[in-house]
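Aim 2, interim progress: modelling of the glutamine-bound target.
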Amino acid sequence: MCRHVGYLGPPVRLDELLLRPSHGLLEQTWAPNDMRLGGTINVDGFGVGWYRADRAEPSRYRAVGPMWADENFAALAPEVSADALVGAIRSATRSTSAERTACAPFRSGRWLFSHNGAVPGWPESLAELAEKLDPVRLLASEAPVDSATVWALLSHRLSEGQPPVDAVRDTLVEVVRAVPEARMNMLLSDGQLLIATTWTHSLSVCRTDRAVVLASEPFELPAAARGPREGSGWEESSWHAVPDGYLVVADREETTLSPLPDIELRDSPTAESR
Ligand code: GLN
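Predicted structure of the complex, ligand included:
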């Protein structure tokens, strides 16, 4: 299943954070080491959205095909620095769009969103939940893919003014209630916060003196993101695996982990009756 990464810290070049590191997102394209429940490589497209202190809204680059094959991104990445970003590489879920627009991160205003997972039975399985959405939001959905529908549900909550942490948790809860087999690792950022969930797939967190990184798989952080106390060996940069069924909220100061209500959901009568 797809891999994603979220970063908050001092400005880093996109190539330093994504392309050059040992086991960075580029390497995870062909050699991920913790794919769960299907999928072997992540070559169905990729995307990066990044924030700069001098711009209100994030910029974004997305493309179909493997990250390694994109000359334009290879040329662009060393020219761009960002102090916050969301990157994703895609292993497409069956029967979903193969277009660029189906690649994360999805964007609305300051928000960037990535979904690592799948909603079995989509689109029928999410049809009832989608009924509460403004038809314009649905019609404007970027691509026919389960993740874009999840983003429509979440961005609807954000646009209604729900606090982002609640919106992420409630979106996961409503999707899993409707589709108990849904796999729902989500990642949301506004450039100041990273909010992520673990619901089946892998996620690790690394906080250095300067930066915080959430990623599907640990990788070697560039020197710019490591503090003076951190060595160059990336094993030392203290990545921690986030257990399954957790909500992670990180800003530039601190990271908090709290359990999602998994027992209630996974053992609920609704889940058993499906
Ligand atoms: N369901 C999403 C897609 O098709 C994400 C897939 C994944 O995590 N591999 O793009």
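The longest strand covers residues 3-13. Confidence is low (pLDDT under 50) at residues 267-274.
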